[in-house]
Amino acid sequence: MEFQQVIDTRQSVRSFNGKQVSEDVLREMVSAASAAPSWKNTQTSRYYCVFNPEKVNEFRETVLPEFNQNSTKGATAYVVTTYRKNISGFNKATGEADNEVGNGWGAYDLGLHDMLLCAKAVELGVDTLIMGLRDADVVADFCKIPEDEQVMSIIAVGYRTDSVTQKPPRKSVDDIAKFI
Predict the structure, then answer these.
(1) What is the DSSP string of 90-102?
(2) What separation, in Å, do the N-terminal and C-terminal C-alpha atoms of the chain show?
């Protein structure tokens, strides 16, 4: 698949058909994500893949708010994304933030990684929905996430149904860019 086709095909899917996503597909997605750049190559992004059918149902029912439960019916995996705190954007010797962004660099790096994860999903014929509304403590407890990691998002993974709506239009380059 050409890269432009990946870009054009990727969209947030809220209608999944229930076909099981394999561990191998999830591994390929995480492997692709790990190729993204990170602050001083610190590689602080972490992924918690929930794909056992019983655990997926338990996760959906106990971790997600009701509207995200409804948006992800038929998704057969969830990927919880985190980053290790106080590393990206911090001076290794002093432990001090290198600039005003601090842990924002961990979030930035994770965003780069997550985009590659979602792009790889498209190439593999899998769809995703990135969700940011969650109770981080409940997510961390379910996935046994250590306290030195920051929960960022939950990505539903599955195969779309035929009823997926058309991708919404994007703003033009002239609307979002200033050339100096």
Answers:
(1) B-TTT--BSSTTT
(2) 34
Distance of alpha carbon 23 from alpha carbon 57, whole angstroms: 17
Task: Convert 128-154 to b/e letters by CB count within 10 Å (16 or more is b).
Answer: bbbbeebeeeebbebbebeeebbbbbb
Cα dihedral 64, 127, 129, 142 sign: positive
Gap between the Cα atoms of 131 and 152, Å rounded? 9
How many domains is the chain built from?
Answer: 1
Domain extent for 75: 3-176
State the pTM of this model: 0.94
pLDDT in tens, 4-26: 999 999 999 999 999 999 999 99
C-alpha distances in Å from residue 76, one per residue of 57, 134, 148, 163: 9, 18, 28, 17
Hey, is 72 helix, strand or coil? coil
Q: Is 65 helix (H, G, I), strand (E, B) or coil?
A: coil
Instruction: Write the pLDDT tens digit of every residue in 22-43.
Output: 999 999 999 999 999 999 999 9
Q: How far apart are CA 112 and CA 38, in angstroms?
A: 8
